[in-house]
Amino acid sequence: MLKEHMTNFIEPMLLLHVCCAPCAAGCVERLLAAGREVRLYYSNSNINTVEEFERRLASVERLAGIFALKLEIDPYDHKAWAKAVAGYEPEPERGKRCTLCFARSLGQTARRAKELNANFATTLTVSPHKSSPVIFEVGRVYDNFEAWDFKKQDGFKHGRELAKQHGFYLQNFCGCEYSL
């Protein structure tokens, strides 16, 4: 039976993988406007230092407060991330290293979403520096993944506007030492 023909269909909670507040702000607005129940999941062991991880997290915590959303934090484990991308360090941005990085973050998020009996999506698709089709390909291995392309409707620009409005930390690299 198609969802639009069901009168009592309720979308499952959506666990949103968050890379940073500037990318997440517009995504959260869009999901809430669509009537979704959203919980944030900050999973960013790709970030090269704990200081940078915490600086981004501080803005994500503020974002969660603004929208009154629950926030879960995947513990920082840069060594495990480095192991996941080992051998691909010299790859250019958008190369195989990035695909492996997406796989690690989405895998972490998928596991937590399963525990919550939720679906999940990622804010990574809002960035013009990330390939949504590649992210969708990585996400499709999980039956609870929802492919939201947040780039659409000027998603990145709107997120940046919200970041400036709320004073979120605006970084200029994805976070890993190889993207500097």
Summarize the model shown.
This protein has 180 residues and is α/β, with parallel strands linked by helices.
Structural overview:
With 180 residues, the protein is α/β, with parallel strands linked by helices. The chain has one domain (19-179). It contains 6 helices and 4 strands. The protein has helices spanning 21-33, 50-67, 78-84, 96-116, 132-139, 155-166, and strands at residues 14-18, 38-42, 71-73, 119-122. The chain has a 4-stranded parallel sheet with strand order 3-2-1-4, sandwiched between helices. β1 (14-18), α1 (21-33) and β2 form a beta-alpha-beta unit. α1 runs parallel beside α2. It is globular. The model has no long low-confidence stretch (mean pLDDT 93).
Helix and strand pattern: EHEHEHHEHH
The total count of helices amounts to 6
Strand content: 5-15%
| Contiguous uncertain segments of 5+ residues | none
Overall mean confidence score, pLDDT: 93
Helix- and strand-based class? alpha/beta
Span between N and C termini?
49 Å
Largest sheet: 4 strands, parallel
Number of strands: 4
Q: Biggest sheet, strands in spatial order?
A: 3-2-1-4
Protein topology:
Layout: E1 14-18, H1 21-33, E2 38-42, H2 50-67, E3 71-73, H3 78-84, H4 96-116, E4 119-122, H5 132-139, H6 155-166
Parallel strand pairs: 1-2, 1-4, 2-3
Helix pairs in contact: 1-2, 1-6, 4-5
